[in-house]
Amino acid sequence: MAIPWLPREVSYRLHDRPHELENMKTTYLLSTAAVAGYLAREDGKRPAWFNRARLMPVSALTPDLQEHLANACHVIAMKVRQEVTNEPAAKGSIAPGRPGTSWQSGLLCARVLWRALFASAAAKAPATKKAVPVLFMASCESLKQACQTLLTKVWREVQVQFTSKENKYRNMKSRPAWNFLEVHQYEVFGKGCGYGVCDPATVAPSSAGTKPAASLQDFLEEVLALRFAIDWLTASMEDAQEFLDSATKRAYKRPITKSKVAADVVSQQLQALKEKTVDSFSMMWTDDAELRGVSSLAVRLMDGLEGPSSMAFAATFTGQMLLAMWKGVAPMLAHHASMGIARIAESHAAMGLLPPPQLPEPDGSNSKTAVFDRIAASYDRPSKDCEELVGALPRGVLGSIIKVQACFRGYVFRARYFNKSRGVASYCKAVSWPEMHPQLEGETVEAPTDKDKKKKKQRTGMASTKVDAQTLNQTISEFQPNVSKYLGGDPPKPGTSGGMAGTMQTMASPGSTMRSTMGGSQGGSMMMTQMSEQAGRNRAWPLPTADHRACADLFALYMYNLYRRKELTHMWSTLCKSYERGMDSYAELLNRNPALKPMLESIAAQLKRGSVVGYDKAFIAKHKKEEPGANQRTKPVDAEIFKTKKPDRKGMGETQGMDETGMPAMAASAGATATMGMSMSNMKLTIGEKKEDNEYSITGEYLTNYLKEMDGDDSQFKDINAAVVPLSTGTSPPRLQPAESILKSAEAAKPGGSPGGSGTATPTRARPKLDVPFCLSKCKPIWLPIKAHRFAAYRAKVLQLLPQRVLQQYIEFEKQGQYAACIKLLESATPGSLNVLSPATMVSGKPLLVETVLQLIVGYSGLCLKNQQGNVAVKLITQVLDNMSLSLRDLHPGHRTVLEAYLFDTALSVCYYMPADVTLSDRSESFFQQASERYLRLGHVNRYCKCCLRAAAVLHNQGNKSEAEYYTQQALNKLSDAPVSSLLSVCYHNLAVHTIVQHRVADSVAHVRSYVALLRQLPKLGNSWMQLLDNTQWLVLKAQELWPQYQQSAGLRDTQMVDGLPLA
Length: 1064
Prior knowledge:
mainly alpha
């Protein structure tokens, strides 16, 4: 692999000069041994790797060498395991310069051992001794790049094998085969880097191992092993660079900075020993005497190898000793892998993104692979936001970004590799290696100090030469700098001068060989072409300017902001999913224990009341018993009108099931939805789209009293949510196939039909004929019921206002379903008459109590419809509407508008459930006009759309198909700019029904496709609602299929055919 910090001249001579071939072979062989030691670290557990490396097998060694090697490997493994399993901090204070964690201790052992093995093994080859440090750094760099590539591939494979990213059946407990890992290892080490490892697909292992398949623990250990290897190789290169700097200074006889003399005798002795080992590359100094002994043992074992095959034996020894080092590191890797698995949850696997295993501090911050997971994620497809931003770039910006990236590569070189490159170039120049030609026998090499003296004399001579003022400008313009070959420049050719003038003179000389060879104009043109090419090659690249740096900073900031945006989006998504998961858990808890629901509602009401009146008044002052003093005025009775009194549980408990509103498919509100952070200082409720319209703005004391009475609930003055269809809770009955569900409903609609099955077989009953009229008859619009607002709370409040004797009679009337008589009894309420059906005698100045009674009547209407007392419901709602103008006279204009719209909408709902009442049905369109006009005035778009859908459903039942489609289209037009919601899906569904019954099959199919596409973008809705949507889709598509035959039999026009379907 390419080594970015190696000077070009050095790499050229190593690669192309024949006399440097032995150095390259030595580096390649020892690098292959290091790869074999890494791959074979788990040979007992998985398929063996060491026999698939192109090294001399261990069985080829003599028995005594095998015994010595086994003993040395045992010592190395025990030493490394001792260091990585004992925390240095647990032993006491850590001396400066010594490792502070078990991870750093393992790295130190690996650095010392690897350097000693490389230097002692290279001594067995005919390699140049002074080349060993540079070859060691080159080997470390190539191994580090290979490990980085493999780390990216392995981590991406982890995300594939142990998450549902590509296969929904995969999770943390998956057991992939070992070949998934072996393929990446061979692809990186064998094909990518060219190390001597065999293809696992063609060469069988010597042992299959004890584990038939891999696990998440094995893959995480592989990831941590690669991270350990990268940190180890990076530190080894830094150690070698430090040796090169000191060796260069010694070659030039520069003073080397010495450390301070230690105070104690032991430290002085250690410092003296360290100075003795400065000149030896194989013996890296460490304060650990045991580690020095282990490294010296490995060196002595290498020194015992002799003969022509000693280099091959040394490579095998190196691989086995590094394998022993990996065996010692294994417990630490297994521990960190198990800690990483403990941080992973099943939700990570479901999301397709496992968190990376973390290292403890400070190892995690100092590691060279701290963000390896982000680097691996960068190889995925760019995010949609990134593609949109890149696609939206102007035409000339992309080219500028590419130029900035090119400048940024130069900055990366200066920041990361320049010191290494300068150190290697200085060392190679100081030791005169690598040479262009092999050194002859008896040839002496000139010392670097002599070269410096000659260069100094030349510079002095040039400085004393006088400059000709007449030719100065020409000399400057034609001057070409001479860049050292060690810094990437081209060496001057023999017989030519450094400048362009010398080249011109050489080519123009009478005895020039070039001129004698090429004559005429052809030779002159070729000569000029070569001159221009040489000038182009010698021309230096322009240095980065301030503009380039500014562009680079801007591009880096741009990319960083993209990354921050992605991370913030991920954080927000995680928080939302966590919130939803918590809400689901609470909902499941409430479903399992219904007794918790009243307690939860009570707590919510108290919290909302506290947000309005203050928590000290709601929770503290409420329990204090204050006795009025002599100087205090007695409060009038009306002062407590807005104070919530404790309901009479005994009286309320005599009636069961009164929390139900009684209206079909209608659920009572669970509480207020007002914002908890509202304060009295800035409390202002604005109704309508125009905030400057003061006619419908409720402020001041009226709003304060309302919020106190409603426990802070102001949801009635706000528009509803567009999510009109409830989400799935997992407890509803499962969805059936559309055909089965439709057949079941058809059988239930017949006289004597039993949709659920009564256990009696009815084989003689024939199924309905499946044709177009049957499909049209089963297509029904979805009805969105109107919900009663706080019915249970309003009923409890009304019961508190009745005297005890009237209360008993009131409850008896409720049991008998005589709700009009109940309203009549409200004339005996404590504050005064609250009979809204007789507004002439009704008490004045109690607007909130009037609303309470009206809401109570709405709930009673729902109960009547539920109990098959439709006539009573019609009578109640009709009387309310007839007397509404007088009964609402004391309400605020904005409050009155909200209640009028609500009551007209309720009357429209009664029309839907009572289609036989002709008088009420004739007024249905008027009810819709009144309610929709007020909703538009208030700016409640979603309430207006629901009202349109209800009116369309009523008209559909009355046979007015085109009018029903028109009102549904009005609702859809209002939602044209709204986000995706279940309300929009219901609009398209009802449009499909209204068009199919008018024999417009093509329009109906288009609407079906629209709401199906919307449902795919929404969360999972309730099964009962999804069953209606599925049934309509099946009916419309079946009608489309049967339409040609029906058209021919019914004699319809050809223009009503579906496009693309021929006649039957």
